[in-house]
Specification:
By secondary structure, the chain is an alpha+beta fold. The chain has twelve helices and 36 strands. Strands 1, 19, 20, 24, 25, 26 and 27 form a seven-stranded mixed beta sheet that branches. It has a four-stranded antiparallel beta sheet with strand order 4-13-7-8, with no helix packed on it. Strands 5-6-12-11 form a four-stranded antiparallel beta sheet, with no helix packed on it. Strand 21 and strand 22 form a beta hairpin. It starts with a helix and ends in a 33-residue tail after the last strand.
């Protein structure tokens, strides 16, 4: 029987060439689909194993149960290995330690250098450095002492860090005592690292200054990636890459830069679709971006696990279309464009019950909280509306999700899928290939009332070459899942949304202090801003230059915004784009005049940003 499989595939390939091309229009199959099918058939014509070809579909929250989940706590600990694994970072800010590149002692002095991660991290005004689980303060390159003489009085630990630039700077303070082990040629190019030199004064004082024994440094860092939506970035020049919390952008970046997927063949042709999904992730829900991702992982984590963890942060769906191009869908319902009619259905299974092993009554949801020093904490529990007598509680670990609210929204989506009204599979003729790369399909099967006209979510696709069929594994879709995206956990939300390093997708912030009360003026066609200093909500002081924005419409109220890399920008009232995303600083409202210098009446202020009645939110000049 060993020749039966290749014989069947060969026959199938011949049938495709002779039949499908000849009658593509009559069969309702496009020429491109027919070509795709013949390629599949030819590729497996002489295969000797298996009748079915899996078309890789990864559903993030469903794949998490089978995927490796990176251990958040392990990532904070230094490692002593002869050939250490490299660490990669993804998304926004996460906390990472690393493998020793230097670990030596000399008398009362101990020196160390650890490689935190591969690639460049974004520069930050105030670094977040940890010794063991103590978040420490640096001043003049030294760790400042803490309560009970921990770490001395600011002179016992010299510590610096490097961001992983292509050409890095040597840790010069190690040369005097450890230059033999760490010569000036040891720079760690392209590797973010921490270097330190610790010393103790006496045997008696050592337990007070170093109560945890050997210090274990770690840092909270934010990687950069290529975001094709930003015209200031160039794919071939990593120096232009910036911080981004967007999971679609990071999934594309990882597939291209780390997993070797061809940009020209697999990504560039579908950038418009990928942009739509990325922009959807940036939409504002409950005061934050809908979906964000932040985490790190060792280089031996399987690519499928990396994909699953990124997809889990957005309830994502990953597949490829018939041309091998990347298909990524963020967690949302989209009306299906592919309809599978009765004449192309050759078989199906359809059930409304759950077996005991599938029944889940409660999800215990966890995420990584910046407010808890980047530790995994519970966001709450999400319970089924009507519990099953055989249902169980199940953990939902989301180590690459940085927000409790986001974690609970994802829990709702997972529970909706676990509790789907019906599930099963549908076998179709080769017409089903038109549904490849579609997360949602519509099936019209008059043999069953519950399947007469139903929207299904595709969990997996197989090509059965022996029978010339396409097999969809499906569940009944909840078409109302996005009607209300707010979720109240069954236990209190802890903690609140963590602080975020700007990733150019956060809402605009308003200064808490302005050196000039009203620095904005306007005329008929321009808005001017005089130089002044402001203080942002995080305490950062920023000196803004004087500048003028021209070419504006008369008698129009504008919001005035500033961002370091873009300078001043304006947007017509109520400025929904820059208010909701982009990490701008909002400076206020102002109206342009008419040719005679008269100004329009003030508009009704919106809720939220600029609409809470604060004095500095009002239009600056509304009277001539």
């Amino acid at each position: 029987m060993p020749q039966a499989i290749p014989a069947a595939a060969t026959a199938f390939a011949s049938w495709v060439s002779g039949t499908v091309y000849a009658g593509a229009t009559a069969m309702g199959i496009s020429a491109a689909t027919a070509s795709t099918l013949s390629i599949y058939a030819a590729a497996f014509a002489y295969a000797s194993v298996g009748y079915a070809v899996q078309a890789a579909v990864v559903v993030g929250l469903g794949a998490m149960a089978q995927a490796q989940i990176p251990d958040v706590e392990t990532g904070k600990i230094t490692r002593k290995q002869t050939r250490p694994l490299r660490t990669y970072m993804v998304g926004g800010t996460s906390r990472v330690s690393g493998a020793y590149m230097l670990r030596e002692s000399k008398g009362a002095k101990f020196a160390g250098v650890i490689a935190c991660c591969e690639g460049r991290l974004a520069a930050v005004p105030t670094p977040q450095i940890y010794l063991n689980d103590d978040k420490v303060t640096l001043s003049g390159g030294y760790v400042q002492g803490m309560a009970n003489e921990r770490y001395g009085t600011g002179d016992l630990i010299r510590l610096e860090y490097r961001l992983g630039l292509p050409t890095e700077t040597h840790y010069g303070f190690l040369t005097a005592d450890f230059g033999t082990y760490w010569p000036t040629t040891s720079r760690g190019d392209g590797i973010a690292s921490i270097g330190w030199l610790a010393q103790h004064r006496s045997t008696e004082s050592f337990p007070r200054h170093f109560p945890n024994g050997e210090i274990i440094p770690s840092m909270a860092g934010t990687p950069v990636c290529y975001d094709w939506r930003d015209e200031t970035q160039t794919r071939e020049d990593p120096a232009t890459w910036k911080v981004c919390w967007n999971p679609v952008v990071w999934l594309v970046h990882v597939e291209w830069a780390r997993h070797g997927r061809s940009w020209a063949r697999c990504i560039a042709p579908v950038l418009e679709d990928l942009t739509q999904e990325a922009d959807y992730c940036d939409g504002i829900v409950e005061g934050e971006a809908r979906y964000r991702v932040a985490g790190n992982y060792p280089s031996n984590l399987m690519p499928d696990a990396v994909r699953a963890n990124i997809l889990a942060s957005m309830d994502g769906w990953l597949s490829a279309n018939g041309k091998g191009q990347l298909v990524v869908k963020a967690g949302r319902y989209v009306e299906p464009t592919f309809i599978l009619p009765a004449e192309h259905i050759v078989g199906y299974s359809w059930r409304s019950f759950q077996v005991a092993e599938e029944a889940v009554n409660e999800l215990v949801v966890s995420y990584v909280s910046a407010a808890h020093e980047y530790s995994e904490v519970e966001a709450g529990t999400y319970s089924k509306a009507e519990p099953s007598p055989v249902g169980k509680a199940e953990p939902l670990q989301l180590p690459w999700v940085p927000s409790a609210k986001q974690a609970m929204r994802l829990a709702k989506r997972k529970m909706t899928r676990l509790d789907a009204e019906r599930r099963g599979s549908v076998r179709s003729t080769i017409y089903g290939l038109n549904g490849m790369g579609q997360r949602f399909i519509r099936v019209r099967n008059p043999e069953l009332a519950t399947m007469a006209d139903v929207v299904l979510e595709v969990m997996n696709v197989e090509l059965d070459l022996a029978r010339g069929e396409v097999v969809f594994e499906v569940i009944q879709a909840d078409v109302t899942i996005d009607d209300d995206e707010t979720v109240t956990p069954d236990t209190p939300l802890v903690p609140d949304r963590p602080p975020v390093t700007p990733g150019y997708q956060e809402p605009a912030v308003r200064p808490v202090v302005r050196g000039v009360e009203f620095p904005i003026t306007s005329d008929e066609v321009s808005i001017g801003v005089e130089a002044f200093t402001l203080v942002k909500p995080d305490g950062t002081s920023v000196a803004l230059p004087a500048d003028t924005v021209t070419g504006l419409d008369a008698l129009t109220t504008y919001g005035v915004f500033w961002r370091e890399d873009l300078g001043y920008e304006v947007e017509a009232y109520p400025a929904p784009t820059r208010m909701q995303t982009g990490s701008y600083v909002f400076l206020g409202w102002i109206a342009t005049s008419d040719a005679l210098g008269a100004f329009p009446p003030p508009p009704t202020r919106p809720g939220g940003y600029g609409g809470d009645g604060a004095a500095y939110d009002r239009p600056e000049t509304l009277e001539p």
